[in-house]
Structure formats: structure tokens, C-alpha cells
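Weekly sync notes, structure subgroup
Attendees: PM, AL, DS (notes)

Item 1: joint prediction request from the bench team. They want all two components modeled as one assembly rather than separately. Inputs as received:
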Amino acid sequence: MSKEKPSLPKGTRDFNPEVVGKRNYIFNTIKQTFQKFGFQPLETPAMENLSVLTGKYGEEGDQLMFKILNNGLHEKKEPEKEKLQENWNKILQQPFSTSAITERALRYDLTVPFARFVVMNRNEITFPFKRYQIQPVWRADRPQKGRYREFYQCDADVVGTKSLLCEAEIVLMLDEVLTSLGIEDFTIKINHRKVLGVLYEFLFLQGAKGTDIDLFVAIDKIDKIGLDGVRKELIDKGYTSEMVNKLFEILSLNGSFEKINELEDKVKVALGEIRDDVEGNSKNQNNTITKIMRTPVGFVELRELREYLNNLGFKNFNRLALDITLARGLSYYTGCIFEVKVNNVKMGSISGGGRYDNLTGMFGLPNVSGVGISFGVDRIYDVMEELNLFPESAQTSTQVLITNFDASAEVYALPILQQLRAANIATELYPDQVKLAKQMTYADQKKIPYVLLIGSEEIASGLLKLKNMRTGEQESLRIEEILKKLAV
Amino acid sequence: MSKEKPSLPKGTRDFNPEVVGKRNYIFNTIKQTFQKFGFQPLETPAMENLSVLTGKYGEEGDQLMFKILNNGLHEKKEPEKEKLQENWNKILQQPFSTSAITERALRYDLTVPFARFVVMNRNEITFPFKRYQIQPVWRADRPQKGRYREFYQCDADVVGTKSLLCEAEIVLMLDEVLTSLGIEDFTIKINHRKVLGVLYEFLFLQGAKGTDIDLFVAIDKIDKIGLDGVRKELIDKGYTSEMVNKLFEILSLNGSFEKINELEDKVKVALGEIRDDVEGNSKNQNNTITKIMRTPVGFVELRELREYLNNLGFKNFNRLALDITLARGLSYYTGCIFEVKVNNVKMGSISGGGRYDNLTGMFGLPNVSGVGISFGVDRIYDVMEELNLFPESAQTSTQVLITNFDASAEVYALPILQQLRAANIATELYPDQVKLAKQMTYADQKKIPYVLLIGSEEIASGLLKLKNMRTGEQESLRIEEILKKLAV
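Output from the run, pasted for the record:
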């Protein structure tokens, strides 16, 4: 057996009990809210066939997937080097094909596996289908602070309904989850892909050559690469400098979510000015532009979302912002889009999502509209650490440690140990008869709140010493009193 | 985007909400017991470096590991075929080395990652360290009924103490977990590697050439390949036919766990007979044999384990069996070993474990004794399905569905929806105004126990119709009465 110093793969982490406790506190809070809103848990395998994943996340995604070596190559009963070498040679004699080497990869997100599940089980599923999924995903990204190669996603999606009630419920869930976690100062940014679509139509009608997705992907990067970076990217994609100027003028408009109409008017005025500014528009072009301006679907739906929130009794409109620079990087969004930012904390968005009209279309099942949201647990964890929001209950496990003085004290302690456990009090008896100081250190480091000291005196009197490890207080109590005091 | 029919990798599964609910019921029961006994959760990454995993599971394990293609080979910014082809050529010009292709694999069990964690964190950990871990593992085994390539293990281990209290607590936990799940008729088989070791010593002193591990691994297969298969395997490994006969004679002895002494005496008598039977033993050999028979460590520890169980007030000795054919396949066990079988159900063991003296030795940290147990959740699931043991509570999520008649009923329903949720009652409003039959089917298939019907009549009177979906009963109630009735 090798005795080299063991290490972890780059970009991966162990979670020790304290961290697992805190992470579970976040997971459980999210789960409770999802369930209260009628979402049910789904789990899919870590591996997916490459044919399912390839081409769904753009070129970058295909490159960053962790691919699994085919079994044929490592499953042979006689894997001598020559045999393996021969296999590789055989592969290389053929025109190069990665499928000879790998046919599976680790899942890259939870959305594509969800779409795959829906398509494969379309006949058994009752639509609308509300599922949540909390599982790790893997990306071979360059690791850096806050970016890992294995991380959890927490997704909730409804598919099979176009009702904007779902969007409203997403806002309610975002608000409830964060508030339950103790995060109070945050902003839910909202936009609609068709608001951005109107902008694109405008640019397109005036001769833009880039696609709408090019436009959305570029706008999405404003926070990362700044306006100048976005300008460069758009010009590279075939937009003119003049168009970018007009676009930026409109993107500088912003407003509260309650005052959608005001913003809509502002956007219309700005679009109108652009229309009038540009020479050489044909009459047809002008008519189309006027029509787009008259019924901008994006704004209509945003107003309906506001109406739902009002009727649901939602009060925290101050936490919502209509942000027309919000684009979201993923190509499949078609309706409302969301992103959540905690204010006054240096941290990217902690949640995001939106509506998609055709997610399952990639697997041959068209016209299944859905909307979903995803929580970034690693970032929420860091925010909660920074703001000191984890309650003590997220960190303790064992409630009582019984010390182990000597053989007779141990025999006396054994039934007491079981009595406490029978009352659902998590209890340990220190398993070895070592120095008391060592046993107390154990309780201390494991954050055990109570230590029960049993020596010959206690055995004689039946009065056991219960020490509160936080206050240092010590009481002499009968076992019945201890059970009563610690009852859960 | 490809539109081929999507599929799952062989040997993997999706878990739909109903199955996840039932699985979580098992996981939560196990977790609660682990925590009550002072175990804390640990999580390790899905990937481990191959240097950590290789050589830890025997030749078969090395072959059945799912290996991950190196990033260098699929992370290139310009992954044109030529470039990739060039990479492969480069690899093949060198003496063949798999590390050029793969340096990581998916974890194969939870024990080796646990040992790796302990060694890497030896200075931060407070020993004895009691951890539990519930995570999936991956094996490229040939899939068949009940055998998957991705499956969960539920492990609890204590390291850093030799106290047999830990073994006793493992028996208590096994008993508590299965009883809590409603499984009542099961047998916890117990043996000790050093009882088997005595048998080996006997055979060795009489000239056996196979190793002790050969012997244990062969005995472990009695259930799978039968006595004849084991005989063949042992003879292949260098044992004589005569030795195998003697061995089988002793292995046919069995007894209740309470009557360890009786069995010990029987084994001693049998060994004595063998000793006397064999001609040509030297005086030295006979002395050694006599010494082994006088203080058989295995039996001493089994008696101590029984003593602990007695003192802990354990009552279910009828569920324990001393089974000297129990060997467990893994090479690292050195002390007590356990295996649990549900009686009257066709199913292999649902749990197993034992003590190991030197698990972390593989990573250069010797002399850390530990003992652990592992639950097989897939098998427990199948047993519970067969015995119909899942409670209804493991399968329902949403409590109330509010029907959606028309626009005005929807507006009326929205604040009620939020009132129910505020009272922690998981509630949904059907998002679309479709036929009532379709909405009822939705409630039915999602096993929602109550449907709240709101039409114009109900809006006018304020008396809402609450339908119990199990009994079919319907009541007209004010919202306050409904809240009271459904309070959780």
C-alpha cells in the first residue's frame, strides 16, 4: 500500500461536522420553503450520458465537463499494460473519436438532467410538475476563492404551466428563504427577456448583425467586465458603435418594481427618440417599431407579476428592483428573469432563475413552458458567516457527555446513558478511562453543552453532577431531575 | 442541439419524489440514531486522487473504479481534434502510464475517504472521533437486480479508542435503527476475526500454505458459492483437503450470543480432537496449540461485548447470533465483525461492519484503532417495500390543493393560499383555470390529502368546501376553522 501523504483533488473540499451542520441548516430552510409551496424532491444520478449533456451549455460547458473514462478501458478482467496499450492503439487507428474514450460525464447543472427526466417520464408525470433538487454538480473550472469544482445547487422548477402565479411564488420563496436565514437586506432584481428582446428588435431593425443571444450574453457581463468590455464584445459580434451607444442609454434607465409603468414610459420615450434620430428608416420599419412600442410583452407580464404579488399580500416591494441590465447568461430563458444580491456584502448574486419556454425541446418534447430558481449555497454560507447569522443550534449535536472515571463508575453510567438516549437526548459516555482534563477538552471541542460527572461520591448519593459548559455552573441532581431539565 | 431520445447511463437511477420521500425516511431514521449516539456528520468530495484510492480495495476494486479523464485532455481552450489527437500521440510515445490519462476517480466507498480525512486533519480532530457519513459511491460493476453503479452508503465509525463499548453501541444502533423502521424480525450475526484467526493458526501449524486473509475471504463466500465452492477456492490457495474437512467441522458449530462459553468450549473440544487426530505434531506445536486454546482473544472480547450489552440494559439477545462462519470480505478488519440479515425475506445482508486496528496506516498514521458500521439503504428500501413498512407520512408533501375556478376565484384564493402557508401547511393553488376533473386528478396523483374548493357560492358565503381525498367527505368551513383543523 502506498504511504504517500494523502491530498484532495484541486477545487474540492471536505466538510467537517461543524460545516455540515451549518450547511444543513441552509439546506433545510430552503427545503422547508420549497415544500410549503408544493415542490417535491427529485434526485438524478451523478453521471449522465454525454449525448444528454453535450451542446447544452455552449462550447465552454462542453470543455469544462468532467468526463468519465469508458469502462471497457478499465473494466477488463486482465488489465495488463499490454492489453491496455493495445486498446489505446486500436482507438487511435480509427478516425479520432472521443466516444471511444468517454461516453459519460458528471452532471454540470441540475436543469438539463431535470429536462431529461421530464422527457423520459412524460407519461407518468402529472403536470404541472413542481420539483426541487438539491445535489452537487461538477465543473472543471479553474479553482479560485469561492469557485469550486464540486458544489451544490438547490433548484426549484415548475413545468407545464405558463401562469405568472409561478413567477410570483418564486419571488415569495426567495423572500421567505432569505428572511428565514436571517438575511434581511437584499435586492431581488427582476427583468424580462422580452424587454431585452424589444431592445434587440430595435437594433436589428437598424441593421445589427449579432443575434439576440449575443446581446443578452454580453449584457450579462456588465458586472464582470464593465461597460467597455461589453462594448468591445458587442462590436466584435457585429453591432456598430452607434448602436451600442443607444443601447447603453436605455440600459442606464432603472426603476422600482412598483413603478413599472414609469420605467416603461421612459423606455418608450428613449426608443422613440432613437427612432426619430436615425435617418433612413423606411416607413415599414417605423411601423414595426411603433407596434413593438405599443404592446411590449415583457412589460405586460411584469405588470401581471406585480398584480399577483399584490393579491398574494406581498409587502416587501422595497426589496424588488426592475433592472433592465439584468440578462442572465443562459440561452434558454425566454420570460421573466431573477437575480438576488445581498446588499452591503461583497458577493456576487446568491440566487437566480427565470422562465423558459422550451427547455425539454432539446430532447424532442416541445412547448413545455416552465420557470425555475436556483440558490447558491456556498455563497449564502459565506454571507451568513460574514454577518454571523448561524444560530448555535446549527452547530451542536451531542447534548451530554458522561465522564468515565473508573470501571465501577462506567458500569453505573451505562444504564443512565441509555435512559438519556431513550428520552431523545443525544448522549455519549467517554469510552476510555483517561484523565478528566482530556475528557473535558473533548466536550469543549465538540461543543457539548452539558457534562455529567459520576464518581464514587455521586454513586453513593445518587446525586449526579451536571456541569453547564457555557456558564461553568454545576448542579447536583437526581437522574429524574436531569431528564426533566434536558427534555427535548 | 441533439434531439435523440435521452437515456440514463447503465446501472444508474432517477429517484422520483415518491421514492425520494421514502428514501429520506430511511436516511433520517438512521441519522437520528447516529446523532443520539454522539456521531457527527462528515462529507467528502465525490472525486478522490487515484493515489488515495488505488490498492485499497484489491485488484477488483482498482478495476471497478470509475476514473475521470484528466482535465488537460478536455479543458483546452482550443480542443480541435488535431490538438487532442496530438495529445494522445504524445501520451502513447511515453512508456504507457494511466496517470497521463486519469489521475482521479469517483469514490468507491466511504471508509477510505474517511481514513484520508482523519490523516489529513489529525491535528485538528479531537479523538475519539465519531463521524457518520451518508453519500453515494460508484462502482463499475456489471449491473443486475439490486446492484447499481451508483448507490448510497450510510456509515458510522469511531476512531481513536479500543473500548468495546463502541462495539456494544453498534449493536444498540443496529437494533434501534431497524426497530424504528418497523423491521422486527432480523438477526445480528457477530463474530471476531481472532476467532477465525485461531482456526487459521491451527491450520498454519499443521502446514497450511494459504494466508489468513485467503481463509477469511473464502469463508466469506459460503452464502454465495456454497461449501463446495469454498473448498475449491481454499485448495487452490494451498490448503489441503484434510485441512478443509477439519475447518468445515468447526464452522458447522454455532450458538446463541448469550451462550458464548458453550460455543467456546465446543470449539476447544473440536480443536483438541483435531490436534490429537493429527499424527506427527511436534511437542512445540502441541504446546502452541494448547496455549492458543487457553486464551483465545476473540472469545475474550466477545464475552466483554456481551457484558457491556448486559450493563446497558440490552434486552434483545434473541436477535444476536454468534456465527463463526461470518468472515466479512474486507481485509482490514481485525476484531469483532457484524452482519445483519432480515429473516424470512429473500435479501442479502442489509448492514455490516467491524473493528480495524490500522485503517489509517495506509496513509502513514499507524495505531489508530476504530470500529464502524454501514447500512445498505437500497436493500433496506426493498425489504420495507416487501413488508409494506413505509408510513403514509413518508409519501405526502403538499397538504392542501386550492382549486382554480376562474379569475375572480383565483384572486379570492391568493390570500387564503398565503394564510395556510403562514400556518406551515404546505399548500398549492392550481395555477391554471382548467376543468375541475383535471385539478382533482392532480391532487389525487400527487397524494394531496385535502382539496379546498372555492367557487362563487363559497366566495359569497365565506364557507369554503374542504374535501378529504381519502374519505371523500366534504365540509363547508370558514378559513379559521380550516386552519384549526389542519394545524401542524
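Discussion: Chain A touches chain B through 115 residues (CB under 8 Å).
Action: AL to compare against the crosslinking data before next sync.
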